[in-house]
Amino acid sequence: MTWLPRIAIGAAFVAIGVSKFRDPMWVRLFDQIGFGQWFRYLTGVMQICGGVLALIPRLSLAGIVLLACTMAGAIVAWMTVLHAPLNAVIPGVLLGILIAMGASEYERSRG
User: Fold this and answer.
1) Distance between CA 65 and CA 68 in Å, rounded?
2) Distance between terminal CA atoms of the chain?
3) Which entry of 6, 56, 64, 84 is 20 to 30 Å from 50 by CA?
4) Residues 86, 92 contacting (CB under 8 angstroms)
5) Is 106 exposed, middle or buried (0-12, 13-18, 19+ CB in 10 A)?
6) In 61-84, which positions are buried (b, 16+ CB within 10 angstroms) versus exposed (e)?
7) How much is the CA Rg of the chain, to the nearest whole Å?
8) Is-contact 7 65, C-beta < 8 A?
9) How far does Cα 65 stand from its chain's mean position?
10) Could you tell me where the DSSP H helices lie in 34-88?
11) How far is 106 from 24, CA to CA, in rounded Å?
């Protein structure tokens, strides 16, 4: 995998993760999910760590898998708890990108 997609994913998810600690919109959203604000913090930390790991060649696959898990969880939350399946499109697209990147990274690591 080239550096450009890795940098884009890393920067995007670090920014998204940091926003979990700053943007009041996330507080309201995670209140609706119902697990408590600890889950918002956990998700933010997972996204920041995944974004950073995606930038480290030897650990990028682990970071991509971690990020993919957060996007899968977001899809489930939007479709079931939040009852807004159209909002699941964004994490769905991001999950598709992460799966493609993960497959590419897996092939690179095997060869």
Assistant:
1) 5
2) 12
3) 84
4) no
5) middle
6) bbbbbbbbebbeebbebbeeebee
7) 14
8) no
9) 9
10) 37-54, 60-76
11) 37
Q: Which of 25, 59, 61 is nearest to 44 (CA)?
A: 25
The pLDDT tens digits for 3-42 are 899 999 999 999 999 999 999 999 999 999 999 999 999 9
Question: What pLDDT, in 10s, does the model give residues 43-57?
Answer: 999 999 999 999 999
User: Token pair of 52, please?
Assistant: 């950073």
Nearest to 70 by CA among 26, 13, 2: 13
Which pair of tokens denotes residue 88?
A: 């699941």
Query: Which residues make Cβ contacts (< 8 Å) with residue 108, sequence separation at least 6?
Result: 1
